[in-house]
Description:
This protein is an all-alpha fold. Helices cover 70% and strands 0% of the residues. Helix 7 packs parallel to helix 18. The longest helix has 25 residues, at 327-351. It is globular, with a radius of gyration of 21 Å. 36% of the residues are buried.
Amino acid sequence: MFILVSLMLLSLILGILIPGVNKLDKRKKIYLFIMFSLLTLVSAFRDSSVGIDTKNYYDIFNQVGVLGLMRSFSTLSVEKGFIFLNYFINTMSFGGFQSLLFIMHLIISISVAFYIYKYSENVIISTFLYVVLVFSSTLNISRQFIAVAFVLICLHFIFKKKLSLSILFFVLAVLFHKSSAVFLPLLLFAKKSVKFNKKIFFSVLTIGVISIFAIEHLINVFINMFTKYQYYLSTDYFIRTKDISLPFLLGYVLVAVCAILLIIKDEKILEIKHEPYYINTILFLGNILCMIASSFSWLASRMIPYFQISLLVILPTTMNRLLYKDPLIRVYLYSILILIFIFYGVRSFYLDPHGLLPFSFFWEK
């Protein structure tokens, strides 16, 4: 727990030690490089007992080494991209399982740091939120977060209207986790002739609001349409696993409302490229929808990692733009949010939902 709390506090302290992080591009890069290098090293050097799924990755790594590539494809029920990565690391014969963890978390760190660098207006707050809300999950469901990483790069190329590169990273994401296929419709906006404007934004928003009141019905429709998934109904995937954290849900809804108000207001106030902000807002609304759905479906909770990353961009950007004339109020609000998230982070690390404790490094065996 000490290492997790230390990283959380370091994300704030480093922002103080490097003044002008959010204003000077070079210092922004230095801050992100230091923080995400540390996060990568901590992730890569953890023991196989750290993280509920890490032991499974360790077993898959050894199985691929024994079976080889083609037999692994036909034998193991894991996405082909992950099998190929395991095979590649095995053939390198350098560092073993720790090399696999290093490559996995290097991909994750580079993608998240890049996304924060490009689309956040406060890299310190974004990195702090990442450590508090997301980093622990990456130490558990690492394979899915590789898919999340590729989705983030895919989104970047969608914003840049580079269709071929968008498709490439979308395919890579699916090769590591099939659940990332939900982002297929967004590829439409990689075409130069298609814009994600206000009209489309509010159309998607309306559909999203309606979906909140029909989540169970939509899941049943999906299961009936794709009968091969009906066996999930008799498993724990559709058993209520936890209650929604109402304070956090209300906080997220408040952030979403503020983001929508910012979009409704004069676009001169926004002063950012609109399409990335529109799409990140929609993704954040998807996060809220998944939070609600996860109260009765474990399956929905597995979709949260894709959408949760949007908070790292939406929260600081929305606060900066809505309060651009009131910097003092903005500082007060950031201070309150930091205290709330520090409390949440310490509590979350202590409860250890991802099986990270006792945290140990591989050489401590």
